[in-house]
Design a protein that fits this description.
About 45% of the residues lie in helices and about 15% in strands. The chain is α/β, with parallel strands linked by helices. The strands form four sheets. A seven-stranded parallel sheet has the order 3-2-1-4-5-6-11, with helices on both faces. Nicotinamide-adenine-dinucleotide binds next to helix 1, helix 4 and strand 5.
Length: about 350
């Protein structure tokens, strides 16, 4: 198996899972190590004889094809992506390049090396935004609204086109918002946890009543592995754990778990084009592949807070360097306009 983006949040979790499930199989990780890629996330695999790391861009078709041939790869699982909506608002180009261009190059490489299966890790965001009722199904038309979602939807279309046009065996999984250990702290949950630890302001976009459908990353990875090993060619599976929560509820739960009070909350200028609500209908994967999530949100969130508390070294390292300037660009003006500075509210 060749996994791309295995040094990121979800890819690293998937690598740990497949090494546990199939210790006799070889897994190759292709990752270019962007700001979000971190070999510390997979440190435990560094000396594993069944694991290889290739530092390469998924757009480098020659290197990827060589790796596919050298290791006789049967399955590609494509996690590599630019993954953060706010960054896609600031600059969409890298999203086009990696998420669309990179996926297309990988599809070509898969064809050239006669790979048996190509699995694309996609997102509920390709479906757009919901009103106050209903949930996305696999048959819901794609209607992406952020540059990130547009790039993921375009990639999904290329994957489906390679299935129909070239007969490539493809599978697409579309999952809701993940949380758990090793998540990069640009995303809601780790950002709020770390700010709460530090007694810093918690920047809630707009009214904070946007709804996301949360799933623990380990449950997502279990579902992906069922799709990798058991799905029919051309299949699409929604993945979600039926944990819809308004952002304000998540933020309040984090404050409680970290022993902080609500004075840290700042309602800041909203994200442009902010999707109001996501919810997944995951009946198909539950029914066809027998998947069900193992984590409930309350325990999963508490364990995640504990993980971040116990891994302060990891947190410090990922928040040093370029993260600082990203954070200032994203939040400094918003927080001062919201009437507080970054450290206001420290008890
Ligand atoms: P992440 O940002 O934590 O990790 C992305 C990884 O891809 C990093 O290791 C990075 O170095 C690598 N990468 C980026 N561009 C690359 C390139 N051109 N070539 C090689 N490697 C490259 O992302 P994540 O949260 O782990 O998401 C993984 C996948 O899951 C993405 O495809 C994302 O769209 C999808 N997804 C994420 C979520 C979520 O909640 N995080 C939900 C549904 C789907
Ligand atoms: P995020 O983790 O960026 O995931 P996505 O945008 O892909 O759903 O954001 C989750 C929700 O939290 C989303 O509604 C935006 C909101 N949010 C904030 O209110 N403040 C923040 O600082 C961040 C990063 C997100």
């Amino acid at each position: 198996m060749l996994v791309t983006g295995g040094a990121g949040f979800i890819g690293s979790c998937y690598l740990r899972l497949v090494r546990r499930l199939r210790p006799d199989d070889l897994v190759v990780n292709v990752d270019v190590l962007t700001y979000a890629g971190n070999l510390e996330n997979i440190q435990e695999l560094a000396h594993d004889p069944g694991y290889r790391f290739v530092r390469a861009d998924i757009r480098d078709q020659q290197t990827v094809t060589a790796a596919l041939r050298q290791h006789d790869i049967e399955v590609i699982v494509n996690f590599a992506a630019e993954s953060h909506v706010d960054r896609s608002v600031a600059s969409a180009e890298p999203f086009l390049d990696t998420n669309v261009g990179g996926t297309l190059r990988l599809l070509e490489a898969a064809r050239a090396a006669k790979v048996k299966r190509f699995v694309q890790i996609s997102t509920d965001e390709v479906y757009g935004s919901l009103g106050s009722t209903g949930a996305f199904e696999e048959s819901t038309p794609m209607a992406p609204r952020s540059p990130y979602a547009a790039s993921k939807a375009a990639a999904d279309h290329f994957v489906a086109a390679f299935h129909h046009t070239h007969g490539l065996d493809t599978v697409i999984t579309r999952c809701s918002n993940n949380y758990g250990p090793y998540q990069f702290p640009e995303k809601l949950i780790p950002l709020m946890i770390l700010n709460a630890f530090d007694g810093k302001a918690l920047p809630v976009y707009g009214d904070g009543m946007q709804v996301r459908d949360w799933i623990h990353v380990e449950d997502h990875c279990q579902a992906i592995d069922l799709a990798v090993t058991r799905a029919a060619p051309g299949a699409v599976y929604n993945i979600g754990a039926e944990n819809e929560r308004p952002n304000m509820d998540v933020v309040r739960a984090i404050l409680k778990l970290t022993g902080r009070d609500e004075s840290l909350i700042r309602h800041v200028t909203d994200r442009p084009g902010h999707d109001r609500r996501y919810a997944m209908n995951a009946t198909r994967i539950r029914r066809d592949l027998g998947w069900s999530p193992g984590h409930d949100f309350e325990h999963g969130l508490a364990d995640t807070v504990t993980w971040f508390r116990e891994n302060s070294g990891w947190c410090e390292r990922v928040r040093s360097g370029t993260y600082r300037s990203y954070y200032d660009d994203q939040y400094a003006a918003r927080l001062s306009a919201a009437g507080g500075n970054d450290s206001e509210g420290v008890p």
